Amino acid sequence: xxxxxYRTSVSSGVSRLGVAxxxxxxxxxxxxxxxxxxxxxxxxxxxxxxxAASTGLSSGPRLQPSGGVxxxxxxxxxxxxxxxxxxxxxxTYTELDxxxxxxxxxxxxxxxxxxxxxxxxxxxxVTNVRQLSLLYALxxxxxxxxxxxxxxxxxxxxxxxxxxxRHRWGPRLFAxxxxxxxxxxDNGRFDNVVNIVNTLRTTQRxxxxxxxxxRWVWNATEQLRSSVTGQYTQSSALxxxxxxxxLRGAGMVAREDIxxxxxxxxxxxxxxxxxxxxxxxxxxxxxxxxxxTVNELQxxxxxxxxxxxxxxxxxxxxxxxxxxxxxVNEARNDLLTARSSLAGTREQYTLQVDRFKLxxxxxxxxxxxxxxxxxxxxxxxxxxxxxxxxxLAYRLDLQNSxxxxxxxxxxxxxxxxxxxxxxxxxxxxxxxTDPAAREGGLAIDPDEASWEVGFLLSLPLDRRIxxxxxxxxxxxxxxARRDLEEFTDNVVLDARRRVREIDxxxxxxxxxxxSVAINERRLEEQLLNxxxxxxxxxxxxxxxxxxxxxxxxxxxxxxxxxVLNYLDSVGQLRVSSEGVxxxxxxxxxxxxxxxxxxxxxxxxx
Length: 605
Prior knowledge:
It is built from 13 helices and ten strands. By secondary structure, the protein is an alpha+beta fold. The chain has three domains: 1-54; 105-154 and 259-405 and 477-601, Up-down Bundle (Outer membrane efflux proteins (OEP)); 170-205 and 210-248 and 427-458, no CATH class. The strands form three sheets. The chain has a six-stranded antiparallel sheet. Strands 1-6 form a two-stranded parallel sheet. Strand 3 and strand 4 form a beta hairpin. It is elongated. The N and C termini lie far apart (90 Å).
């Protein structure tokens, strides 16, 4: 096509050809760009699905839609972006009027403000409240949690690197076109020549080193000063050539890039699954800590109610002459302390809710209401020895560490190969058109074929850098060996610790429940005979009961998380594609939901 266009007229033909090629490239690039991206996405989905299936993942990563290419606006290239930092005189500060000092107005106002913050966090008095159960929190965390999306992207990056490497090892097509114009002067007369060379070529890496290339070269030349018809020549040739190493860079060393890319995708699949399990435990931990704070709020509200009644009782006894003023003031002081602690716990809940919403990828201004939930998983019947054996066999991160140690061993072999001499064989076969023909066209002439075979031997007179690199890889191998040993020891340590944590959490829960029962009985006895009970004893009982209830709730939360941590640390935790625990055979999992009366928790004392 190029030769026909050129023969008609060199100047006008080249001009028309240039415009046509330019328009064609722009249109095909604009249309093919999106088709090309669709093909890339399909290949990514396929390779991710294959990887997830081969490694036994319960859920693979999703390919998130792209946000598109940024627009070329000026601010992207602004070397001096605007800084918004107004001068002092441009700012204002308005002091808050707290009320009259020495009165309860300030305390009551502050208490109201703090309670309103907590009520908003609890979804009281606001619209568009989202109910947040444990199952819903786990599911939404997998859909839009920033940490989860980032982990998916890490997995996808590994797949992209593998597809890139696979493409490098496949046949690659190229089309090169060049146009050059030159002139030779002779006594003020210049012979101007235009030369057009088009090359269509394909390259292929060879399995054990080297590269082969096949190309078709078309060359057209025209003497511009003379007539077009008499000075136009055209030729083409089919060329096959290859360069193959026999020593340095030959063998499996040549395949290192593709081997490592394939292995890295397996590592990424394991890392993603390990992340999903740890992420499930982490989200459940955050949720149960929120429930624990809710339980603490309930305990403090109940304590505050009891202290209000106690203060009224002590004031009545004081007026009747049966209590000293010291006893009344001590009860009032504990009441103030309880109000302060309740406000602090409400603020703690507000902050926890906001942080939890951020982890789930919810807008910070989105009001939510927790649904009280419990997940009941019976403690496993296990031993430290059984837990250790399971962790060593099933931990995905440990499997990655073992395989990366093998990568270090391969790196040593590669570095040793680089010390060898360069001994390459290269060859070329060229089949041109008839050199006697002024216009060769596409009619190549096998009778004019030529071939050439050569050998290159480069003796390693200077391999100091390569030997230093080999020494470096040997040191890295020893470091990798130590790192693997240390990581294995930490896996064993973690598994042993998780078994003990379950027993410790159950032990503390039993003690805390016994303490709650004792202090509830103490309080009942004191309420039956208030006259015979000293005020300080009654206050101590209230405090002890509150602490016992909070300790019980903490121990219960610790036990739930300890079981989940145990399953994760020994490699036996399985998380379904919906983001919830997938029970093992013989495991009973019960998840119970019930509403929380936030109005009672945040009402005015």
